[in-house]
């Protein structure tokens, strides 16, 4: 490790490694990159504990286009991330997303979202209850008014595979990684000048990128700044079905989608099992080291909703569960990508609120463009910049789960 780098990235999971990859892949960037990661096992990172899905079914065109780029990147990942003979396979499952609405207001949201999605070229269809029943005959649809289904461009994939692919390629392209922790950020007026590590080392920095996930606010405060991001706990459950409905669909080669019930409970196939979760009834910020699952959510929320939706989900058995953290943006639940307007060499890549893996490629590319060119060159992410935080102007997204 040297004592000075053009870019120091705080956090080396999927977002930090995506930034490192796109910087070092760009022939117009000739600087040095250091990634500081406190836990090289990534065992408790939001990346490793994610359900790792991707969808285009958002209500805002920027989010749709972010995921469209993410999907393209995932398709080409093995070739793009090849290092020597290693071609990382993300094992993408093209199951699609299925949103269900059982109230007039929910149905109207699906219709409005669909107009945005189709305007962006997304392959999403709206279904009446009878269409839904034909496609997925295991579902009870008596209460459903409308469904929205992504026929292509949506599914789930290997979460840590995405991160390790970015990390390994970035290192092959010259990025340096160090196992350490940033404990202080030096600042001279309107510029950050470097970081101090827990090991005692000091490193000068031309730009500091905050990619520290749920700890983003801690990192920002070291520079005398702030960001409205806090850790929110999400418990995922893997369960077995006595009579699995996987394979019963009449479309998509029998594969079931990731289904979002009107209750907010979601589930999808996970190998021979299923994976499901819900938004907690109470959703406070938690301690950064609190990873105890909320076991009661399965019995109280997840199982009842699924059993009501399908007889196939009446007899279930949990085989595994874990808790991870959303890097939750308390202003509007959306990503924050951009420079601080007063400290311009401090760059945010935070607040993904559960969408970090699918939005990582676009966010990494966007941050690299800001650093290399001083502005966005491909997809304009100005709407999700830090300025809206200072102005208390939420970037509204109606399709948040």
Automatic annotation (TrEMBL):
Coiled coil: none annotated. GO terms for cellular component: cytoplasm. Gene3D superfamilies: D-Amino Acid Oxidase, subunit A, domain 2, FAD/NAD(P)-binding domain. The keyword Transferase does not apply. Keywords: Membrane, Oxidoreductase, Transmembrane, Transmembrane helix. It holds the Pfam family DAO. The chain crosses the membrane at residues 7-24. Residues 6-370 form the FAD dependent oxidoreductase domain. It comes from the Bacteria. GO terms for biological process: mitochondrial respiratory chain complex I assembly. GO terms for molecular function: oxidoreductase activity. PANTHER family: FAD-DEPENDENT OXIDOREDUCTASE DOMAIN-CONTAINING PROTEIN 1, SARCOSINE DEHYDROGENASE-RELATED. This is FAD-dependent oxidoreductase. It comes from Allgaiera indica.
């Amino acid at each position: 490790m040297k004592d000075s780098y053009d870019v120091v990235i705080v956090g080396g999971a999927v977002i930090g490694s995506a930034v490192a990859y796109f910087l070092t892949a760009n022939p117009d960037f000739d600087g040095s990159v250091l990634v500081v990661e406190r836990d090289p096992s990534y065992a408790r990172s939001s990346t490793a504990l994610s359900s790792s899905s991707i969808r285009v079914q958002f209500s805002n065109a920027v989010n749709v286009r972010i995921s469209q780029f993410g999907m393209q990147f995932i398709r080409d990942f093995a070739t793009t991330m090849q290092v020597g003979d290693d071609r990382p396979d993300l094992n993408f499952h093209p199951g699609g997303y299925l949103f269900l609405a059982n109230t007039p207001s929910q149905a109207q949201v699906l219709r409005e979202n669909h107009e945005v999605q189709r305007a962006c070229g997304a392959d999403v269809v709206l279904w009446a209850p009878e269409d839904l029943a034909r496609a997925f005959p295991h579902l009870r649809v008596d209460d459903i008014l409308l469904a929205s289904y992504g026929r292509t461009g949506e599914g789930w994939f290997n979460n840590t595979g995405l991160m390790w692919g970015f990390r390994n390629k970035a290192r092959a392209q010259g990025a340096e990684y160090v196992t350490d922790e940033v404990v202080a950020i030096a600042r001279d007026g309107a510029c950050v000048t470097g970081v101090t590590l827990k090991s005692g080392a000091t490193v000068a920095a031309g730009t500091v990128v905050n990619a520290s996930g749920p700890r983003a606010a801690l990192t920002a405060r070291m520079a005398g700044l702030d960001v409205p991001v806090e850790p929110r706990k999400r418990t995922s459950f893997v369960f077995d079905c006595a009579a699995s409905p996987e394979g019963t669909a009449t479309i998509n080669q029998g594969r079931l989608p990731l289904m979002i019930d009107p209750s907010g409970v979601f589930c999808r196939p996970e190998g021979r099992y299923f994976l499901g979760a819900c938004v907690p009834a109470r959703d406070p910020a938690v301690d950064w080291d609190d990873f105890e699952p909320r076991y009661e959510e399965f019995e109280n929320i997840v199982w009842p909703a699924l059993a009501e939706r399908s007889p196939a989900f009446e007899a279930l058995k949990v085989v595994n569960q874990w808790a991870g953290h959303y890097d939750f943006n308390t202003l509007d639940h959306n990503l924050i990508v951009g420079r601080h307007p007063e400290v311009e060499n401090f760059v945010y890549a935070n607040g993904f609120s559960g969408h970090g893996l699918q939005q990582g490629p676009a966010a990494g590319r966007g941050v690299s463009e800001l650093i290399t060119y001083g502005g966005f060159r491909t997809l304009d992410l100005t709407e999700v910049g830090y300025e809206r935080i200072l102005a208390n102007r939420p970037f509204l997204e109606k399709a948040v789960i």
